[in-house]
Specification:
By secondary structure, the chain is of the alpha/beta class. It contains 23 helices and 19 strands. Helices cover 38% and strands 24% of the residues. About 5% of the residues have low confidence.
Length: 573
Amino acid sequence: MPILLKDRILEVLKSQKGFNEKKFEAALKHQSQKGGSLSRILIDSGVLSQKELMLIFSKQLNIPPINLARYKLDLSLLSLFPEKIMREEKVIPISKIGNTVTLAVTDPLNVFLLDKLKAITDYDIEIVLTTEDDIKSIFENFYSGRGFDIKKTIEEMDESGVGVVEVVSEEKIDLSQLADSVKMPLIVKVVNITLLEALKKRASDIHIEPTEDALKIRYRTDGVLHEALSLPKKSQNAVIARIKILSKLDITQMHIPQDGRFRIKVENHEIDFRVSVLPTSFGNKVVLRLLDKSALGTGLDKLGFLPESAAIFKKALEKPYGMILVTGPTGSGKSTTLYSILSELNVPERSIITLEDPVEYQIEGLTQIQARPEIGLTFASGLRSVLRQNPDIIMIGEVRDFETADIAIKASLTGQLVFSTLHTNDAASAITRLIDMGAEPFLIASSLIFTCAQRLARKICPHCKEAYDIPQSVFERLGIDYAIVKKSGKDKFYRGKGCQKCNNTGFLGRMGVLEALMIDDEIRDMIVRKATSDEIKAYAVKHGMRTLRDDAMAKFFIGLTTLEEVLSVTSLD
């Protein structure tokens, strides 16, 4: 390494606050005695961070830096260089124009490596700078299939691959064994590793979407879709046929919607997949919902609710009979909340029957019924039959019409505890929705115990959580009363800066945000006289109910989520 550059780096470091010249000199001495990368030695000895070194190199060598976390990587480029070299030397190809390949590197001074790669591939090499953590994240995201390269395998596959998907067709598969089997048909490997990657990334859904010239695969993690990879168009029919076979669906039907499910086993751990197939102009789109029973908490304490909100909900569960409604949009965690409650209430002394469309989690000890409107088994007709089974607790997937609402209300008045869901924006609107369906107000007032509205907010990643300031003007511009902020006593707030653990999103996992409305005598009177949802809500807030926005802001103040996330999942009351 030229002395001139070494001196320039030293001058830059000297200008930084807290620079330790002795550590720097020790690093130089270490390199001169034992060799090795000066960059690595400087980082390991704590002289400076990866990002600081990258910026110094960028300024002194006039090489542009890049944030790989925000860069859309072309997976086909990963096959240009041997994976072993890229891992060891920490380089990633990010673009190819003509005969020139651009590499993201962590050590621009390793000219021997660049010459070696040029000799291996016969490409001209240009470089940009990145950090070692960004490089590691790429390998974590795209090379986690135990050495199996999905892109390369698919491109080597021809149309005959469609014919071999029936080799493995049992309902339960041990993916951890199949992924390691070199004798497995190629398309089966591709589908299995796609499922394994979804589990590794904590995805709740897998979207397999045909386009005009490719098959896109996206994972939904913490409520947000992220593109995982793009497969060649020729693999589309094989991938979709494999999933249909696993789901016991008709692979010859390409023009009608289909629904199915299957179960996989990974290291003695079973996960259910609910499958929805929809015909589109470019072929069948498939969405798989991952249903992991082990992820279900037993009771409300595992759902991330604040203790005050959970306490109100628990008080409602102490009632021997009546109706409890959980409201919110699709994907807000309503079913998970109800299943968690039912898991807690599931004891031999109780008979619990659920009527769902579809049955999401299959739980031992519960009698679960799949609604089938096409054969006349609707929520209403099924509920009549359920009542003849002498249940203690009934869970109805959703109250969709007057007939279902009427039977559910009457069941709750005759000794059953009834749970169900509605699609409304807040807790009070559940009451007026029942009235709009045609239910009698006096019956609603007599049967309803509790309603709540729920949302899911992403949690700040604990591995990269950092404090930062938010000016008063930001709260005022967003319409948030700064007196509430001052009352909280907080002058520091938190966010995730992004790391390998959270795929550089700054968030890891989600938690429930709850608006809990306990029905008291005054609200019952308001129901009977058909008060509006706004009037009921205003009364409840006056008497201590915490709205969705209030509940989310409380989580923000204690550092569980960010202000941006609060604003995205709740509206101003």
